[in-house]
Amino acid sequence: KYQGLHYDDLLKTRKGRLSPALTTYYSKPLALHQGHKQWLFDVDGRRYLDMFGGICTVSVGHCHPKITEVVTEQLSTLGHVSNIYLHTKIHEYAEKLTAKLPGELKVVYFVNSGSEANDLAILLARAYTGNFDIISFRNAYHGLTCQVMSLTATSVYRYPVPQSPGFYYAMNPDVYRGIWGGGACRDSPVQTTRTCSCGSQCIAGINYLKQLEEVYQYNIPKGRAAAFFAESIQGVGGTVQYPKNYIKGAFDLIKSYGGLYVADEVQSGFGRTGEHFWGFEMHGVVPDVVTMAKGIGNGFPLAAVVTTPEIAKALTKAQHFNTYGGNPIASAVGIAVLEILEDDDLQENSKQVGTYLLLELEKLRQRFSVIGDVRGKGLMIGVEMVTGDGSTTPLDPGLMLKFWDRCRDLGVLLGKGGYFGNVLRIKPPMCVTKHDADFTIAVIAQALEEIF
Ligand code: PMP
């Protein structure tokens, strides 16, 4: 039984003692007390199906007993020692994590958050190439340290302070909302209902690549780029998928401009997209640097940057240190997550349940005109809500909130994202079942029937 502060006290503390800049979900914020697998319980003991996994973070399920066990054991053996010493866990974890990556991606730096990982990747790219300029997508989210804030390219996260120099933005290759269309050209199971007729080269992809090339041409002399950053599927941006072959083209372009390809796998890594362990694999590229966080630690503050031995050497030009990165507990958690993913066959589950959910959501799209688009891969799903008049005009924010609140009242927690905040983001713990998918569909359908 919950015995902490009363709900009203929580609200008061949040208002007076926590940063006023904090985002709070729902019109009446949810006060959570307990988690179990794909379930969350509020302070009154009410159960919710967590279809957002703490922003795509809880990968193997809330309070997984194996994680509790390894943390308890590690905490009572050697809780913290920083990486200035040898300790078995960080070495074991480095071996196990890098074994999951292809090619020369065999050197890892452990850090504590996705923003830190991307910050380090920027440094690594600049130190290795000797170049400064970096390209990312408009609408991308890569984190919010002062420097990474400039890599993130969405105005809602921009403070009225000078941004870091050396960042350029390419048009977001968004095949639903973008100017060149191409909805049928993305690589996704729901495409069974829409067929791409472009042949081997998708027109939208070619146009977006031309625009990307122009960003280089007008801003960055040949050979002078440091890095191109992209998520394999955009997360916070609203589960945006790119046209087929676009990423391969973007990879070739950054190479021809002398820079590194950095894959931000903070959301799309660790089997979430089902077919592959890493999102970049669906695009047929092997990045120079991979950044990872969230699902890597199932909610534990753990993140990493993996690169090749040659690129890694660039960081020896000065000293680099991180107190907590890969500490014994973090490493023990990281190892446990890798083992659970395998033991519980969660990548395959993501594929099975995710594909089923996508196809069921697609059926809802055909029933309700306010669902403009259903997209994603595995358990990284987006449902874009529109006005329902056949256009892509985003659903009114008030109605979106009403709909979203109603899903929560009916027992399902969903995420929200996209530039207009009109995309439902579905990224549950990867242990969700087909039954949970059915429940989610039933709740969304009921909320849609009631409100629209
Ligand atoms: N990259 C991506 C793709 C993310 O989604 C996020 C977090 N939403 C980050 C980086 C930043 O991670 P963190 O909040 O752990 O700093």
Automatic annotation (TrEMBL):
CDD domains linked: OAT_like
Primary location class: mitochondrion
Record GO terms (molecular function): (R)-3-amino-2-methylpropionate-pyruvate transaminase activity; alanine-glyoxylate transaminase activity; beta-alanine:pyruvate transaminase activity; pyridoxal phosphate binding
Catalytic activity: glyoxylate + L-alanine = glycine + pyruvate; N(omega)-methyl-L-arginine + pyruvate = 5-(3-methylguanidino)-2-oxopentanoate + L-alanine; 2-oxobutanoate + L-alanine = (2S)-2-aminobutanoate + pyruvate; N(omega),N('omega)-dimethyl-L-arginine + pyruvate = 5-(3,3'-dimethylguanidino)-2-oxopentanoate + L-alanine
Top-level class of the enzyme under EC nomenclature: transferase
Entry's localization field: Mitochondrion
A GO term from the CC aspect: mitochondrion
Highest taxon of source: Eukaryota
A biological process from GO: glyoxylate catabolic process
Enzyme Commission (EC) number: 2.6.1.18, 2.6.1.40, 2.6.1.44
Cofactor: pyridoxal 5'-phosphate
Aminoacyl-tRNA synthetase is among the record's keywords: no
Keywords of the record: Aminotransferase, Mitochondrion, Pyridoxal phosphate, Transferase, Transit peptide
Family designation: Belongs to the class-III pyridoxal-phosphate-dependent aminotransferase family.
Complexes and interactors: Homotetramer.
Function: Multifunctional aminotransferase with a broad substrate specificity. Catalyzes the conversion of glyoxylate to glycine using alanine as the amino donor. Catalyzes metabolism of not L- but the D-isomer of D-beta-aminoisobutyric acid to generate 2-methyl-3-oxopropanoate and alanine. Catalyzes the transfer of the amino group from beta-alanine to pyruvate to yield L-alanine and 3-oxopropanoate. Can metabolize NG-monomethyl-L-arginine (NMMA), asymmetric NG,NG-dimethyl-L-arginine (ADMA) and symmetric NG,N'G-dimethyl-L-arginine (SDMA).
Name of protein: Alanine--glyoxylate aminotransferase 2, mitochondrial
Lineage of producing organism: Eukaryota, Metazoa, Ecdysozoa, Arthropoda, Hexapoda
